[in-house]
Amino acid sequence: xxxxxxxxxxxxxxxxxxxxxxxxxxxxxxxxxxxxxxxxxxxxxxxxxxxxxxxxxxxxxxxxxxxxxxxxxxxxxxxxxxxxxxxxxxxxxxxxxxxxxxxxxxxxxxxxxxxxxxxxxxxxxxxxxxxxxxxxxxxxxxxxxxxxxxxxxxxxxxxxxxxxxxxxxxxxxxxxxxxxxxxxxxxxxxxxxxxxxxxxxxxxxxxxxxxxxxxxxxxxxxxxxxxxxxxxxxxxxxxxxxxxxxxxxxxxxxxxxxxxxxxxxxxxxxxxxxxxxxxxxxxxxxxxxxxx
Amino acid sequence: xxxxxxxxxxxxxxxxxxxxxxxxxxxxxxxxxxxxxxxxxxxxxxxxxxxxxxxxxxxxxxxxxxxxxxxxxxxxxxxxxxxxxxxxxxxxxxxxxxxxxxxxxxxxxxxxxxxxxxxxxxxxxxxxxxxxxxxxxxxxxxxxxxxxxxxxxxxxxxxxxxxxxxxxxxxxxxxxxxxxxxxxxxxxxxxxxxxxxxxxxxxxxxxxxxxxxxxxxxxxxxxxxxxxxxxxxxxxxxxxxxxxxxxxxxxxxxxxxxxxxxxxxxxxxxxxxxxxxxxxxxxxxxxxxxxxxxxxxxxxxxxxxxxxxxxxxxxxxxxxxxxx
Lengths: 292, 324
Hints:
The structure holds 2 protein chains of 2 kinds. Chain A is mainly α.
C-alpha cells in the first residue's frame, strides 16, 4: 500500500511539472492554432539559463524563474513577429509546423555549441533533503518544484479569466476576425501569447533543472510531452494542462514501478493513440469552442 | 500534370541507368557508400511521399516500418535460413520483412487514418516509439542484444558495390511505382484526398480504401528498404534501425525537393546529402543547424519545394499553394 501511495505521489509531483512545461504549448495551440515544435527548446533553454544563473551568480533557480521568464518572453515575442508570422502569411498554418521544426533543430544545435552536449544538472543547497509523512518520503526539491508550478499555473488561470489581456486573448482565440473588428490588435496579441508561452516554458525549464538532469537533446522529449499533455487534458486552458500533466505523471510513475522503467514511453504513446481515437478533444475539451 | 511517356523521357531514364551502373568503376569506396546511402534515403523519401505527398497524410513515424522490415527479415533468416547462397538467400527474408511492415500497416491503418493532420503525424510518431521500445524490451525480439543477417554479397564483389546496386534498383522500383500511381485512378484519388477529403468522399471517391492502400504500399516499400538496410549492416540492434532521424529525413527530403512531386524526394535527398555528407563532412557540429535552416528557408522562400519553385517560374501563379 505504501509503495502504491509513494508511486502515486511521485507521479503527481512529476505531473505538476509536466503541466507547467506543457501549458505554454497548449496556449499557442489554442489561441493561434500553431503546433510549436520549438517549445521543448524553450524549456531546455530555461534550464540552461538557470544553470548559468546558479553557478555563476549563486541565484536560486526558483528565484531565477523571473529573469529567465523575462528573457524568454522577449525571445518568444520576437520569434512570433518574425519567423512564425512570415511562415503563416507566406505559406500556411501547416507550414508553420515545419518551420518550427526546422528552428528547433537550429536552436538545439546552438545550445549544443554553447553549452556542450553533456548532460547537466542543477544542485541547489537543499538538494538532498527530504520530508517524511509516515512511510512516504518526498524530496524538498520536488516539493518546491511542484509548489512553484502550481503558483504559476494559478496565476496564469487568474490572468486569463480576470484581466483585460486575458479576455482579449480568449476573444482572439475564438474569432480572430471578430476580435480585430472590435479593435483588438490581433497581431500584437499573437506576439504576446507566443512571448508568454516561451516565458512559461523557460520558467518550467528552470524548475525542471533542479529536479531532473537535462541536455540539449532532451528538447524533443519535452515537446512530445507537451503534445501528449494537451491531447490528454484538452487544448488551450491551464486546467486542461494540469489534468493532462497529472495524468501523464501518474502513467509514467505507475508504468515505471509496475510494468518496467523501459516501457514508459511506449505506455505514454499507447494512451495517447487510444485517447486520440476515443476522445480526440481531450478530457476537458478545447477551451475555445469549435472555431479551431 | 501527367503526360504520356515520351521517347525522350525513356531515353533519359536509360542514360541514367547506364550512368548508375558504370559509376562505381570510377569512384572510390567512400563515394560509393555516399551514393548507396543516397539511393537508400531517396527510396525511403519516395515511399513516404506516396502517403505524405500524394494523400497529404504526414507520417512522423515511418522509421517503424524500417525497423519492422529489418527485424522481421533477420528473425526469418535466423529461424529458417535464407534458402540458397549469395544474393538468392536474401529474397525470402526481404519479402518477409516487406510483408511484415505492410501487414502491421494494414492492421493499424483503419484506426489511425481516421485521424488527420498533426494528430495523424503524432500518432504515427507514437506507433514508432511503441514499436521501438517493444523490440528493445521484449526478450524474444532480441532488439537489445542485436540480431545478425548473413552477408549476401557474391564472392569477389566488394559489399559496398553490391548494396549500391541493390539500393539503386530499389530506388528505381519506388520511382516506377510512384510514377505509375500518378497516372492511374489511384493517384487521382490520393490527390483528391489531399486537396479536400470530405468533398472527395462526397463525390464518391472511396477515400477510406485508397488511403489504406497508399499507407500499406508506402509501408511495404519502406519495409523492403529496411530489410535490405539490415543486410547492409549485417548486425544491428533496435536503435540502429529504429532511428528517429530516418523518420525526419524522409519528410525533410520531400519538403526541400517538392512534396507530392515524382522527383522531389530524390532531388531533395541528393541536395541535402551532397551538402551534409560531401561539402560539410568536416563540420559535423553544425549539420543539424544547416538542415534546420535549409528547411526553414525552403518553407519561407519556396513553400512548394525546389521543383515547384522552378516549375512555376514561367507560368502564371497557380490557384493553390503547395501541399498540405
